[in-house]
Amino acid sequence: AEEKSLKIMRVIWMIFALLLNILQILFADSPFKLNNKAGFCLVKHDSICQEIRWTTAGRLLVPGKNKCLGVEGDTVGSKVTFYDCDETSKYQKWECKNETLLALQGQELYVELKADSTAVLSRATGPNSQLTISGTHSGPCTRTHRELFTIEGNAAGRPCMFPFYYNNQWYSDCTSEERPWCAVETKYEHEMWGYCPTNTKDKWIRHPTNGAVYQLNTNSALTWWEAEKSCKQQSASLLSITDPNENELWNLRQPGGIHQGYKLWTGLTLDSENGWKWTNGSPFRYLNWDSGHPLTNAAFSCGLMDGALRYSWQSSKCNKKLGYICYSEGVLPSPTEGLDMGFCSTPWIPYNGHCFRLDRTGKSWSDAQQTCRKEGGDLASIRNTEDQSFVISQLGYAPTDELWIGLNDIKRERLFDWTDHSKVSFTSWEFGRPAAASDHEDCVLIRGESGNWADRDCKEKHGFVCMKTSASEPSKEEGQQDTGCKVVSIIFITENKYILKFYPLFYCFIYLRKVEKIRKTKQNKKTNKKKKQLNNSSDLVPEIHGIFETAEGKTWFEAQKYCRAIGGDLISFHSAAEQQLERQRYNNLWIGLSAPDQDTGYVWSDGSPVNFQHWQSGEPNNKNKVESCVEFYQRRWDQSGSWNDNQCEGYKGWICQIPTGVTPKSPPPPPTPDYNRTSDGWLEWNGNQYFFETKTMANEDARQSCKEKHGDLVTIDSEAERIFLWKQLHMLFLTVVYFAVLRWMDGSPVIFQMWDVDEPSFKNSDENCVVMRTFHGFWHDYNCGYEHKSICKRSGSPHVNATVAPTMPKNGSCQTGWKKMNYKKFLIIFDQNFVICFLVYLMSEMVSTPTTDLWIGFHNSYKEGFFWTDGRPKKYINLKFPVSNCCVISVFYLKQTLKCIFHFHFKTEPNLQDPSEPTTLDDYFKIINDSIKLVPQQMNWDAAQKNCEADGAKLASIRTEWTQAYIELLALNLNRPLWIGLNKTNNYFRYIEGWPMTSAYWGPREPRREGNCVYVDVDGKWKADNCNRNISSVCMKSTDTPPKDDTKDYPGICPEDPDQGTSLQRNFWKPYRGFCYLFFSDEKEWPDASTSCLAHGGVLASIADPHEQEFIQSNIGTFKDTHTSYWIGLFKTHKEWLWSDKTVMDYSNWQSGQPRDNPYGSISASDGSWSTGHRWHDKAYICKTAKGKM
């Protein structure tokens, strides 16, 4: 009867405690009335004391008025009254001092209630300023504001802003239209919103087997603590993962698998006593740490999952802003009555249906298990805090004991199970355990004063705890036994006193636990024979768990020397299991296999036998008979890795192995270069000097560049010279480079060749120049018009005052009907008063056809684009897309490939003398409604503009192709660049006359970050430069009037995102001015991101001006802890940067040193600057679409 009464009382106390906690939560942010000691009410209206409550940003909201308390200034006597709520106003923010004083935030100015029911700011702290909640002695700050974090929507999880103004109405709580939602700004001007948290989980992801539900919040960006609050506001917790199947769920659910780029908070947190644990109390029995994690720095005390690495776990600082996953268990089993103690024979001790005994005999884990099983039991399973408390308090456990229990991860690494196959529902690890850095500590023991758990090597000898099922009846030898006590949780002191009344003579044990934050652990795979080291790191690990490579790499011989210097050798593999390397990058690594003598075959560097091989398909092939060393080659599609033979002089990462127990020696010094460097940047080797030009140029330009440096394109006369050059290409990270061969351009004989397979091929009969590939150093023939980096060579340093003789183009006469332009010959065709100007070099004869289209020597028989058949550089391109493989010039159709048709007021002279210095043209040349005038005098941009204004004109605005073509012709004939009226303010290009840019003709890598004023160069391309540069200019008068942009209102609504089927979270467009934007967290290559935007009804975003830049930057800055950059709609074609939505590029925000040669553009999440990237880079991305009609 007493036991039954105790159970009933305990249930009553538990219900009471639960209700009390609920009431505390409900009333913590409830409204209240404030009075001073004289009974005056702070907020009074019509003689009725009004309720107030705390709300966002330290403000006090009057719900009945939907107004906030504020003052008109921060001076004594300022009246406290109602104002429209404004989260940015410092005069509406309050704080408590000395519990009952309400002060203006950051000021020593307190609210004082007057006898006339008014409230003012005062420095007095007397009774009239002592404010308490009506009916209590508590001050106003005993109530708080509970932030509600939004779900979905477009606000990235930001908390609700109360009150908010929407649709001509104030809301002090979530609006209940359809589904409860709120705004995150007081005014709904930017349409930022999200759903309010609820307990409904109908739309959550349901686990297929255990019924648990999950909420994926990839479009949110919250700190770990905020994410935990968000989950709790939905009666859930941050995700806990207790077995591999739960972890694998995310790989299976994600579209595209593991390449999503999500970094999501989980419920992992670091406790100062027990180490890593799950916040919802789930057992920490399964480990999936990423390589190198958890970090040992205690500041990295929160855990996340990285979707780019198969959702492995990483430790992180908790203040990063990331997405997160909420988790709620399925239907929990009904609680069962505690089992009777049962009966046990001596020396076993009964507890909760089992018998336990402690044995301090030192045994290995497996021997201890066998001992327990011989006695009809097994190593002990500890299923809850009560079991844990019983073991350390009732079995004679001492703080010095180290005792095996049944937990282990022998069956599956990093997944701990009990030997009796019972469910792992509780863990109590000591700090730093289980050890992520060791894969051979597979068995668990309890130790220390608190009996916390540690994983250890199963071969160690320790005492142990056995457990077996108790008998239902006592044996004859047992007789009457003390049945012991049941474990209880004591919540209140009154409950403690009540229990003592019933058990005054018995000792009962309870279990107390201190919960704080967590620190990280480390774990790697096990090894039995040897330890291995990666690259030049001095930290030894039991086996490969993460590969790090030096930036410069080493040759095979340098890597071998390095490994031997530290006491080991290059790694050797003798089974498939040994070469299972876990890694994140997929570069190639030297191993110890080589063939120093092709006749004897391959040998391991450490002298071990070659009893295992794992070659890549088709290898070894000893390509060009120069591949004698072996690399380990691992890719996403070849996770187990395979071998490939390669040239020993290539620079790669490497893997060392060191015998167990050997202390590594200091690494050797870096190898001494076998060359010297001259003062002007050339490398001196074996009597010659070499210069590696990183600028890409066609062969003709590359050779001219070499000659200007007193050299010529390199000649290669031996294998040693080829190896030297090839090694430098690796060190300098160059791509394919030009040099002279077939016949050396400097006239020297060809005494050495190293062609790649099937080379030279002389494709299309125009591959007359040669490049060296950096991948293997072999030679390929190419069309000379390809632009590559290059190598120059000279026999020695030139004299300090030496100058290069200028190369003058040859003068000569032209046949009848041909005219000379820019040292080239053109056939100018006259059609009445029009002159057709072909600004291309005609390379082949015209085909006799009745059409007016003309064949030119421009073709795209190569995948890389169009090239001239004679290999000349592509100085000018004017293609109309789409195009075929060969090109024609159309005489009469401007939009196809015609460049310019103009009235000229001068005649074409038949002589070929160089033109004299042009004089100022007094007359303007009219093009439609514009009149153009050339000003050959050279001056800076400002002076050029003033010169035009003095003539009643402005620097020219280029609004049509006709104007562009004419100014281009002026620049070409003058052979000088010309200022136009385009300049930049705040990275935004605008014509000085007010015309918007409707087209652009930027040159390669333009507009440059440092250039603010624009000129038309002699090639017709626009370039941005310093405005102080002195050059010629072009003035323009126009009868047209520039448009005025009076648009202030941007009507329209954003579309609903179409259901993508595989998406786990809905996407909501975010409006700004006349457009809508989607910010995607899943990472894709640029083409895939572009396709995804099309599927969502938009395109990759363009950025038209500083305002749009600021909007996008503020939104992606929220996710800077997750993504470093986002793809935007910038792409490069024919060396010109364009927007994918065909918007003209009149605004740019390039990083310093950008744009580079990569073809796609991205925006930094940290500072909003632009940079370039390769197609295969995976990034988050931004979509954009125009608003629809309302």
Reported for the largest beta sheet, the result is:
8 strands, mixed
Distance between the termini: 73 Å
Computed over alpha carbons, the radius of gyration is: 40 Å
Q: Which CATH architecture of the largest domain? A: Roll
For CATH, the homologous superfamily of the largest domain is named as Mannose-Binding Protein A, subunit A
Instruction: Report the β-strand fraction as a percent range.
Output: 25-35%
Helix content percent band:
10-25%
Low-confidence segments? 17-27, 255-259, 333-338, 479-548, 732-736, 812-853, 881-885, 888-921
Number of DSSP-assigned strands: 71
Question: What general outline do the C-alpha atoms trace?
Answer: flat
Main CATH class of the largest domain: Alpha Beta
CATH topology of the largest domain: Mannose-Binding Protein A, Chain A
Q: How many helical elements? A: 13
Q: What is the average of the pLDDT values? A: 79
The assigned structural class equals: alpha+beta
Count of separate structural domains? 8
